[in-house]
Amino acid sequence: MMMPAEKSDNLFCSLAGLVDERKTSTTVDSDPSKQAVKISVRNLNFFYGHHQALFDNTIDLFANQVTAIIGPSGCGKSTHIRTYNRIFELYRNQKAQGQILLDGEDVLSPEMNLIDLRKRVGMIFQKPSPFPMTIFENVAYGLRLHYRIGRNELADRVEMALKRSALWDEVQDKLDRPGTELSGGQQQRLCIARAIAVEPEVLLMDEPSSAIDPVATAKIEDLIEALKEKYTIVLVTHNMQQAARVSDYTAFFYNGSIVEFGRTEQIFKKPAMKQTEDYITGRFG
Ligand SMILES: Nc1ncnc2c1ncn2[C@@H]1O[C@H](COP(=O)(O)OP(=O)(O)O)[C@@H](O)[C@H]1O
Ligand SMILES: [Mg+2]
């Protein structure tokens, strides 16, 4: 997609403006070396059969920060985050090589306990995907899997997760209704409740608001802002405004490689790479 330079420059300014607007509400240490690294990725390569989809991805994700992953469709955003909890191993002929450290532990090691890993690294998908069960059971499911707890504590934890995902007020009177009866935006918050109920450390969100309306999207964005106090969040988004609004760091992917990574402010105001600038100003993608 090509855009006249003037129009794309305006877009550039308005994106930079979005970053400025929210600066007051975020406290980010400006020196990345002082921040705790939650996930450290080194030379990650990924293969679908013989097709290589990721090339030497190297990136550090900081604890309690939101990192946005942006880039055109098919550049490897989903593939990249699906390595963090090894969810790709549910499929045949998919292979990751390289190093992913979660608090220093080797995620790709054969010794890694996958049930435990997927509890620690929760995931929210593009299409809201509640289980075919009640609202209550959707959230209780993972709790039962990971903890031995009695009925009262289970109910308390379900309530807490629904409150933290800003859904409680809307569902407290119909916890026994099927999750699939909720609106799309509510279903997505239910999936967030399901993910956070088990107290993960990292939340992976793969275009979580691409299938829901703008009001629901705004709710999810507010939620992300609140959740980063407890979790490290990785947000894949093709919506540049969303990345500018909610993320602290941004990684720009292209053709399976990480072209540029930095503070969101820097990426949107002063990208180092021409490719990054061309993408965020809408000159391609
Ligand atoms: N299941 C799959 N089998 C084979 N190739 C795939 C599969 N899923 C994704 N790919 C390929 O891997 C590349 C990256 O895809 P993906 O990670 O889905 O990109 P994005 O999330 O950025 O749109 C693309 O070339 C895509 O065609
Ligand atoms: Mg994707």
Short description:
The strands form 2 sheets. A 6-stranded mixed β-sheet has the order 6-7-8-3-9-10. A 4-stranded antiparallel β-sheet has the order 2-1-4-5, with no helix packed on it. Helix content is 38%, strand content 24%.
Average pLDDT level: 91
- In CATH, the homologous superfamily goes by the name P-loop containing nucleotide triphosphate hydrolases
| List of distinct ligands in this structure | adenosine-5'-diphosphate, magnesium ion
Instruction: Please summarize the sheet with the most strands.
Output: 6 strands, mixed
| Cα separation of the termini | 6 Å
Domain count: the total is 1
Percentage beta strand = 15-25%
User: What Rg, in angstroms, do the CA atoms define?
Assistant: 19 Å
Provide the CATH top-level class.
Answer: Alpha Beta
Number of helices: 11
* Helix-residue proportion: 25-40%
Q: Quick one: how many beta strands?
A: 10
From the spread of the alpha carbons, the general shape counts as globular
- Give the CATH topology: Rossmann fold
How do the strands line up in the largest sheet? 6-7-8-3-9-10
Summarize the helix and strand pattern as letters.
Answer: HEEEHEEHEHHHHEHEHEEHH
Overall SS class: alpha/beta
Low-confidence stretches: 1-7
The CATH level-2 architecture is identified as: 3-Layer(aba) Sandwich
